[in-house]
Amino acid sequence: MNAALMGYGAAVLDGLDDAARRTVADELTALEGVVVADAVLRSALSDTSIARGQRRAVLTEILEPKISPAATRIAAYAAFSSSAQDVPASISEGAHRARTYAKDGAIEEPPLSVLAARNRVAGYAAAVLEDQPVSTLEGVEDELFAWSIAVENSNELRRVLTNRDLTGIARALIVTELLGDKVHPVTARLAAYAVLGGRPRDLLGTLGWLVDRVAEERGWRVARVRTAREIDPESRERLTSSLHSLVGSPVELEVAADEALLGGVLVEVGDLRVDATIRGRLDALRDHLTSDRPMERSFDTSIANQGAG
Q: How distant, in Å, are the alpha carbons of 49, 222, 272, 309 from that of 266?
Protein backbone atom coordinates (compact mmCIF):
# COMPACT_ATOMS: atom_id res chain seq x y z
CA MET A 1 0.00 0.00 0.00
CA ASN A 2 1.33 3.41 -1.00
CA ALA A 3 -0.22 5.83 1.51
CA ALA A 4 1.35 8.94 -0.03
CA LEU A 5 -0.10 8.00 -3.43
CA MET A 6 -3.54 7.62 -1.83
CA GLY A 7 -3.43 11.24 -0.71
CA TYR A 8 -1.85 12.53 -3.90
CA GLY A 9 -4.44 10.79 -6.06
CA ALA A 10 -7.25 12.11 -3.86
CA ALA A 11 -6.05 15.69 -4.33
CA VAL A 12 -5.78 15.35 -8.11
CA LEU A 13 -9.12 13.59 -8.50
CA ASP A 14 -10.95 15.95 -6.12
CA GLY A 15 -10.35 18.77 -8.57
CA LEU A 16 -12.01 16.99 -11.51
CA ASP A 17 -15.60 16.63 -12.64
CA ASP A 18 -17.21 13.22 -13.15
CA ALA A 19 -16.35 13.00 -16.85
CA ALA A 20 -12.69 13.84 -16.25
CA ARG A 21 -12.49 11.28 -13.45
CA ARG A 22 -13.80 8.59 -15.78
CA THR A 23 -11.20 9.58 -18.36
CA VAL A 24 -8.39 9.36 -15.80
CA ALA A 25 -9.66 5.99 -14.59
CA ASP A 26 -9.73 4.62 -18.15
CA GLU A 27 -6.26 5.99 -18.94
CA LEU A 28 -4.64 4.64 -15.79
CA THR A 29 -6.36 1.28 -16.28
CA ALA A 30 -4.92 1.13 -19.81
CA LEU A 31 -1.47 2.05 -18.48
CA GLU A 32 -1.78 -0.62 -15.81
CA GLY A 33 -2.47 -3.18 -18.54
CA VAL A 34 0.53 -2.04 -20.58
CA VAL A 35 2.85 -2.32 -17.57
CA VAL A 36 1.58 -5.83 -16.84
CA ALA A 37 1.96 -6.95 -20.46
CA ASP A 38 5.24 -5.23 -21.36
CA ALA A 39 8.16 -6.88 -19.57
CA VAL A 40 10.65 -4.35 -20.93
CA LEU A 41 8.66 -1.37 -19.60
CA ARG A 42 8.06 -3.13 -16.28
CA SER A 43 11.78 -3.82 -15.95
CA ALA A 44 12.66 -0.20 -16.75
CA LEU A 45 10.23 1.13 -14.16
CA SER A 46 11.66 -1.28 -11.57
CA ASP A 47 15.31 -0.47 -12.28
CA THR A 48 16.92 0.26 -8.91
CA SER A 49 19.78 2.17 -10.56
CA ILE A 50 17.39 4.96 -11.61
CA ALA A 51 16.68 7.59 -8.95
CA ARG A 52 13.02 8.13 -8.17
CA GLY A 53 13.13 11.74 -9.36
CA GLN A 54 14.48 10.57 -12.70
CA ARG A 55 11.75 7.93 -12.95
CA ARG A 56 9.14 10.59 -12.39
CA ALA A 57 10.64 12.94 -14.96
CA VAL A 58 11.05 10.25 -17.63
CA LEU A 59 7.57 8.82 -17.13
CA THR A 60 6.08 12.32 -17.27
CA GLU A 61 7.86 12.99 -20.55
CA ILE A 62 6.66 9.69 -22.03
CA LEU A 63 3.03 10.02 -20.91
CA GLU A 64 2.33 13.73 -21.41
CA PRO A 65 1.65 13.50 -25.16
CA LYS A 66 -0.54 10.40 -24.74
CA ILE A 67 -2.83 10.84 -21.73
CA SER A 68 -4.45 13.63 -19.71
CA PRO A 69 -2.35 15.81 -17.36
CA ALA A 70 -4.21 14.44 -14.32
CA ALA A 71 -3.51 10.81 -15.25
CA THR A 72 0.11 11.68 -16.00
CA ARG A 73 0.53 13.34 -12.60
CA ILE A 74 -0.83 10.31 -10.73
CA ALA A 75 1.21 7.78 -12.71
CA ALA A 76 4.41 9.82 -12.39
CA TYR A 77 3.88 10.26 -8.63
CA ALA A 78 3.33 6.51 -8.32
CA ALA A 79 6.79 6.04 -9.85
CA PHE A 80 8.25 8.72 -7.58
CA SER A 81 6.72 7.77 -4.23
CA SER A 82 7.48 4.05 -4.16
CA SER A 83 10.58 1.91 -4.18
CA ALA A 84 11.66 0.76 -7.65
CA GLN A 85 10.38 -2.78 -7.29
CA ASP A 86 6.97 -1.51 -6.18
CA VAL A 87 6.37 0.93 -9.06
CA PRO A 88 4.15 -1.44 -11.11
CA ALA A 89 2.06 -2.19 -8.03
CA SER A 90 1.76 1.53 -7.23
CA ILE A 91 0.53 2.27 -10.75
CA SER A 92 -2.10 -0.44 -10.24
CA GLU A 93 -3.07 1.17 -6.91
CA GLY A 94 -3.43 4.53 -8.61
CA ALA A 95 -5.63 3.02 -11.32
CA HIS A 96 -7.83 1.26 -8.75
CA ARG A 97 -8.27 4.48 -6.76
CA ALA A 98 -9.19 6.40 -9.91
CA ARG A 99 -11.81 3.77 -10.78
CA THR A 100 -13.28 4.04 -7.27
CA TYR A 101 -13.50 7.81 -7.54
CA ALA A 102 -15.07 7.56 -10.99
CA LYS A 103 -17.71 5.22 -9.63
CA ASP A 104 -18.46 6.68 -6.19
CA GLY A 105 -17.21 10.27 -6.24
CA ALA A 106 -15.70 11.36 -2.90
CA ILE A 107 -14.71 8.30 -0.88
CA GLU A 108 -14.27 7.56 2.80
CA GLU A 109 -10.60 7.03 3.56
CA PRO A 110 -9.78 3.71 5.27
CA PRO A 111 -8.10 3.81 8.70
CA LEU A 112 -4.30 3.64 8.71
CA SER A 113 -1.56 3.76 11.33
CA VAL A 114 -0.45 7.19 12.54
CA LEU A 115 2.63 7.21 10.31
CA ALA A 116 0.79 5.92 7.23
CA ALA A 117 -2.06 8.40 7.76
CA ARG A 118 0.40 11.28 7.97
CA ASN A 119 2.07 10.05 4.78
CA ARG A 120 -1.35 10.05 3.14
CA VAL A 121 -1.91 13.66 4.21
CA ALA A 122 1.61 14.48 2.98
CA GLY A 123 0.77 13.07 -0.46
CA TYR A 124 -2.38 15.18 -0.59
CA ALA A 125 -0.40 18.27 0.41
CA ALA A 126 2.26 17.53 -2.22
CA ALA A 127 -0.35 17.57 -5.00
CA VAL A 128 -2.12 20.69 -3.71
CA LEU A 129 1.09 22.66 -3.19
CA GLU A 130 2.94 21.66 -6.37
CA ASP A 131 2.07 24.69 -8.46
CA GLN A 132 1.56 27.25 -5.70
CA PRO A 133 3.93 30.26 -5.57
CA VAL A 134 6.12 30.83 -2.53
CA SER A 135 4.01 33.82 -1.43
CA THR A 136 0.98 31.54 -1.12
CA LEU A 137 2.86 28.98 0.96
CA GLU A 138 3.80 31.57 3.58
CA GLY A 139 0.17 32.60 4.04
CA VAL A 140 -1.02 28.98 4.11
CA GLU A 141 1.53 28.12 6.78
CA ASP A 142 0.30 30.98 8.99
CA GLU A 143 -3.38 30.12 8.46
CA LEU A 144 -2.86 26.43 9.19
CA PHE A 145 -1.01 27.30 12.38
CA ALA A 146 -3.84 29.62 13.48
CA TRP A 147 -6.39 26.88 12.71
CA SER A 148 -4.44 24.30 14.73
CA ILE A 149 -4.40 26.68 17.71
CA ALA A 150 -8.16 27.25 17.34
CA VAL A 151 -8.81 23.49 17.37
CA GLU A 152 -6.50 23.01 20.34
CA ASN A 153 -8.19 25.76 22.35
CA SER A 154 -11.79 24.68 21.67
CA ASN A 155 -12.88 21.46 23.40
CA GLU A 156 -16.20 21.52 21.57
CA LEU A 157 -14.62 21.91 18.12
CA ARG A 158 -12.06 19.23 18.88
CA ARG A 159 -14.76 16.80 20.02
CA VAL A 160 -16.71 17.30 16.79
CA LEU A 161 -13.70 16.95 14.50
CA THR A 162 -12.47 13.80 16.25
CA ASN A 163 -15.91 12.20 16.67
CA ARG A 164 -15.59 8.77 15.06
CA ASP A 165 -19.38 8.37 15.06
CA LEU A 166 -19.32 10.87 12.17
CA THR A 167 -17.87 9.88 8.82
CA GLY A 168 -14.59 11.43 7.75
CA ILE A 169 -16.38 13.13 4.87
CA ALA A 170 -18.91 14.69 7.27
CA ARG A 171 -16.14 15.98 9.54
CA ALA A 172 -14.20 17.36 6.57
CA LEU A 173 -17.32 19.21 5.40
CA ILE A 174 -17.60 20.82 8.83
CA VAL A 175 -14.05 22.17 8.45
CA THR A 176 -14.82 23.47 4.97
CA GLU A 177 -17.96 25.23 6.20
CA LEU A 178 -16.22 26.75 9.22
CA LEU A 179 -13.26 28.08 7.25
CA GLY A 180 -15.27 29.06 4.16
CA ASP A 181 -13.77 32.10 2.48
CA LYS A 182 -11.96 33.19 5.65
CA VAL A 183 -8.74 31.53 4.49
CA HIS A 184 -6.95 30.76 1.25
CA PRO A 185 -8.61 27.84 -0.65
CA VAL A 186 -5.38 25.83 -0.28
CA THR A 187 -5.54 26.21 3.50
CA ALA A 188 -9.16 25.04 3.56
CA ARG A 189 -8.35 21.98 1.42
CA LEU A 190 -5.41 20.95 3.59
CA ALA A 191 -7.27 21.49 6.86
CA ALA A 192 -10.24 19.45 5.62
CA TYR A 193 -8.08 16.57 4.41
CA ALA A 194 -6.19 16.49 7.71
CA VAL A 195 -9.55 15.40 9.15
CA LEU A 196 -10.48 13.04 6.30
CA GLY A 197 -7.09 11.45 5.64
CA GLY A 198 -5.55 11.59 9.11
CA ARG A 199 -6.42 9.67 12.26
CA PRO A 200 -9.07 11.32 14.49
CA ARG A 201 -7.05 10.93 17.68
CA ASP A 202 -3.99 12.40 15.96
CA LEU A 203 -5.73 15.51 14.59
CA LEU A 204 -3.68 18.05 16.55
CA GLY A 205 -0.49 16.15 15.79
CA THR A 206 -1.39 15.95 12.11
CA LEU A 207 -2.14 19.67 11.91
CA GLY A 208 1.12 20.61 13.61
CA TRP A 209 3.03 18.21 11.39
CA LEU A 210 1.28 19.65 8.32
CA VAL A 211 2.33 23.17 9.29
CA ASP A 212 5.92 21.93 9.43
CA ARG A 213 5.55 20.28 6.02
CA VAL A 214 4.34 23.51 4.43
CA ALA A 215 7.21 25.41 6.05
CA GLU A 216 9.66 22.82 4.73
CA GLU A 217 8.11 23.04 1.27
CA ARG A 218 8.42 26.82 1.36
CA GLY A 219 12.09 26.54 2.29
CA TRP A 220 12.69 24.26 -0.67
CA ARG A 221 11.09 26.76 -3.03
CA VAL A 222 13.47 29.66 -2.28
CA ALA A 223 16.85 29.30 -3.97
CA ARG A 224 19.44 31.65 -2.49
CA VAL A 225 22.01 32.34 -5.18
CA ARG A 226 25.34 34.11 -4.63
CA THR A 227 27.30 35.00 -7.73
CA ALA A 228 30.50 36.83 -8.51
CA ARG A 229 28.80 38.82 -11.25
CA GLU A 230 25.27 39.60 -12.33
CA ILE A 231 23.31 36.75 -13.90
CA ASP A 232 21.73 37.67 -17.22
CA PRO A 233 18.03 36.89 -17.80
CA GLU A 234 18.74 33.88 -20.03
CA SER A 235 21.08 32.28 -17.48
CA ARG A 236 18.61 33.04 -14.69
CA GLU A 237 15.89 31.26 -16.64
CA ARG A 238 18.13 28.22 -17.24
CA LEU A 239 19.10 28.07 -13.57
CA THR A 240 15.47 28.36 -12.47
CA SER A 241 14.47 25.57 -14.85
CA SER A 242 17.30 23.31 -13.67
CA LEU A 243 16.45 23.85 -10.01
CA HIS A 244 12.78 23.24 -10.74
CA SER A 245 13.72 19.85 -12.19
CA LEU A 246 15.95 19.09 -9.21
CA VAL A 247 13.48 20.13 -6.50
CA GLY A 248 10.31 19.06 -8.31
CA SER A 249 8.51 22.36 -7.67
CA PRO A 250 8.63 25.96 -8.90
CA VAL A 251 11.64 27.78 -7.44
CA GLU A 252 12.02 31.46 -6.59
CA LEU A 253 15.53 32.88 -6.98
CA GLU A 254 17.03 35.31 -4.49
CA VAL A 255 20.25 36.53 -6.17
CA ALA A 256 23.01 38.45 -4.42
CA ALA A 257 26.39 39.54 -5.83
CA ASP A 258 29.53 38.50 -3.96
CA GLU A 259 32.84 39.41 -5.60
CA ALA A 260 34.73 37.25 -3.11
CA LEU A 261 33.49 34.16 -4.97
CA LEU A 262 35.71 35.19 -7.95
CA GLY A 263 33.45 33.41 -10.47
CA GLY A 264 30.58 30.92 -10.81
CA VAL A 265 27.59 30.58 -8.50
CA LEU A 266 26.75 29.22 -5.06
CA VAL A 267 23.19 27.91 -4.73
CA GLU A 268 21.36 26.96 -1.51
CA VAL A 269 17.85 25.49 -1.64
CA GLY A 270 16.65 24.28 1.74
CA ASP A 271 19.45 22.05 3.04
CA LEU A 272 20.85 21.45 -0.45
CA ARG A 273 24.05 23.33 -1.25
CA VAL A 274 25.58 23.41 -4.75
CA ASP A 275 28.96 25.16 -4.91
CA ALA A 276 30.13 25.89 -8.48
CA THR A 277 32.28 28.90 -7.62
CA ILE A 278 35.94 29.44 -8.29
CA ARG A 279 36.45 30.18 -4.60
CA GLY A 280 34.73 26.92 -3.72
CA ARG A 281 36.94 24.93 -6.10
CA LEU A 282 40.10 26.62 -4.75
CA ASP A 283 39.06 25.86 -1.17
CA ALA A 284 38.29 22.25 -2.09
CA LEU A 285 41.68 21.91 -3.80
CA ARG A 286 43.43 23.36 -0.76
CA ASP A 287 41.61 20.94 1.54
CA HIS A 288 42.55 18.06 -0.75
CA LEU A 289 46.22 18.99 -0.81
CA THR A 290 46.42 19.41 2.96
CA SER A 291 44.43 16.30 3.84
CA ASP A 292 45.67 12.72 4.17
CA ARG A 293 42.40 11.33 2.75
CA PRO A 294 40.91 11.69 -0.74
CA MET A 295 38.58 14.63 -1.22
CA GLU A 296 34.91 13.65 -0.97
CA ARG A 297 32.59 15.00 -3.65
CA SER A 298 29.20 15.57 -2.09
CA PHE A 299 27.56 17.42 -4.96
CA ASP A 300 27.24 17.64 -8.70
CA THR A 301 27.98 21.07 -10.16
CA SER A 302 26.48 20.35 -13.57
CA ILE A 303 23.14 21.93 -12.68
CA ALA A 304 24.61 25.10 -11.24
CA ASN A 305 27.01 25.43 -14.15
CA GLN A 306 24.03 25.89 -16.46
CA GLY A 307 23.28 29.17 -14.71
CA ALA A 308 26.81 30.43 -14.36
CA GLY A 309 26.57 32.51 -17.55
A: 28, 14, 11, 13
